[in-house]
Amino acid sequence: MPEHNATDIDWASLVFDPAFMSAVDKLADRRFGGGPIAEEASTYVIEYLSADDWRKCRQFQGNSKPTTFLYTLASNAIEEFSRKRFGRPRPPKWLDDLGDLWVKLWRSLCLERQLLPSLVDRYSAKGFRDPDAVTQAAKVIKARIPNCGQANMDSVGVEDISAVSDAEQSLEPQTDQDHANPFYKELLLMVNAVTNEKLCCDSFSEDSLARVGEMAASSQSKLDSLRVGLTLSDEERIMLRMVYVEGLSKTATSKALGMPAHQAGRAISNVLDRIAKALEGADIDIEAVFDVMQ
Amino acid sequence: MANDLNQTKQQQSAALLALGVSGRLESDYPKPTDEELAQLIENSLDMTRRQQLMHIIANDPDTHKRWMALVDTASTLGIGAFAENTVETASPEANRKSFLAPIIEFFQNPFAGMATAGGGFATAAAVLFLVFSGQPEYQKNIDGLYSDFGDSWQSMPAPRISKRGVTPATQVELSAYDQALQDGMLEGLQLLGPEFFLQGLDVQQEQLQGNQGLENDQYAALKLSGKAAAISHFKCHLESEDDYFVRAMLSLEGLQPELAKQLDGTSTALQRTIARKGSARDRVCRFSRVVVDRLSK
């Protein structure tokens, strides 16, 4: 039974309510750093919601609060505005796989040409994200995309991690090091990119990439063993991704998943223990992985 | 410090490796509508569909991005569970409520409480939190200790920490008042998780006894005292931050008026313990010892 009567809602009143308009401005400012672009975005959101006699709003079924539903649509509208305003080049696949923070940062830095300090402040406001995670992500993006922010920007070509990770991966141990699973090389590269604070422009040199490739080849059977020996639940994977890829605080992660504030931290601690045991069982030296590009 | 940083980075590397090798699974569930994502952020989805959405978010990058965008929006605007981030100004009526009296007094004479509370920015921040949280009920103050400090431990508990006085609480029949205290301790232990254990008080075995003829407010105050004592017991035994003791002390002072109204021995003992002088840490730890000792007899 729907909690709210979906047919009786006066969407115009809700949208033009000063509190909602103020919230839209806040979202636009956070996304675009204020100024005329943010104002354009706010206007776009209102047009998006009101188009075709509030057609998108009228998809509401009454199961959530009307305002939360409106905020969800507003969030979609802002991203649509960004794509229309700044174009829709696809992010490189390696970046796409890393997630929302990375793609947003790429758009903000490379397409919209926003300044990094202001992005760090906005993305880590109220303790939502670790500011170091945002800075690190930006550093890697700029290192791997040298012409980020320039006209006719193109990304450094890297192997398509998604095509490999989506493919059916054989569970047979790979013994031929000359034909190592390219996914593992990209995985080790990604691990270093996200965690290694000393990375800079020279870190992705041919020599450095070759060392990563050698490590991936020699570690193939161990990584296969890790994959077979470790099972993560959906919620565990989401939590790990939110904290260690998106850079969210554990409290914010708990809130997003509807848990008591400390529960995500506790759950992550438990799953890290299991991962540590699985790494030990697969004979993987995590310090060696961390150091390979130094 | 260098070791702590290295350990954090190693954990991050381990987490990323694990995520990488775990890959993605196919999902036959229908992708979420915008409204279902709104329900997810409100935590109002039914369990079955929630589990389905967790599966889709974990395995479909596009859905993961949609959801993360909404999480970002929720945090910015303070909606769903993020609504607790919203700062509200206390109304004049709220200011007159008894638990805020010591805080208002603090503002009128800012130096009066400094020596007791330990002084410094942490004190001011803790006081400001309570004044401006707009949440006068003492329930939320005690719950706030768990949500803000329940996960931050400067050292981890040993597998078991004993109460002083080893006698299991169940050997002696507790009064209704002490049973209320014990209910609070059990709730607190459940929130803290299985790493936190008190000998003689088995969270798996014991059940909450509930209000056994006490007035509702009296039961609530005693139960919250037990809950505050549970987290404080461990904060006192393991190295913990000063901010916790300042906030906990203020929370106990918020309970004091309700305890002072009651005439039973338990409430009187607790109220007198709160009233005794000392640093914030001394007062909070003394309080938790009194509660644990009562349940050890």
Summarize the structure.
Chain A has 294 residues and is mostly helical.
Any chance you could write out the topology, listing elements then pairs?
The complex is a heterodimer of chains A (294) and B (297).
Chain A: H1 11-16, H2 18-32, H3 35-54, H4 66-86, H5 93-98, H6 100-111, H7 116-123, H8 131-144, H9 161-166, H10 182-195, H11 206-218, H12 220-229, H13 234-244, H14 250-256, H15 263-281, H16 286-291
Helix pairs in contact in A: 2-3, 2-4, 3-4, 6-8, 7-8, 10-11
Chain B: H1 2-22, H2 34-42, H3 47-59, H4 61-77, H5 92-96, H6 101-108, H7 114-117, H8 120-132, H9 138-149, H10 176-192, H11 216-237, H12 242-261, H13 265-275, H14 280-296
Polypeptide structure, described:
The complex is a heterodimer of chains A (294) and B (297). Chain A has helices spanning 11-16, 18-32, 35-54, 66-86, 93-98, 100-111, 116-123, 131-144, 161-166, 182-195, 206-218, 220-229, 234-244, 250-256, 263-281, 286-291. Residues 154-179 of chain A have low confidence and may be disordered. Chain A is built from 16 helices and no strands. With 294 residues, chain A is an all-alpha fold. The radius of gyration of chain A is 22 Å and the shape is globular. With 297 residues, chain B is mostly helical. Chain B contains 14 helices and no strands. Chain B is elongated and about 60 Å long. The two termini of chain B are 43 Å apart. Residues 85-136 of chain B have low confidence and may be disordered. The chains are: A mainly alpha (294), B mainly alpha (297). At the A-B interface, helix 2, helix 4, helix 6, helix 10 and helix 12 of A face helix 1, helix 2, helix 3, helix 4 and helix 9 of B.
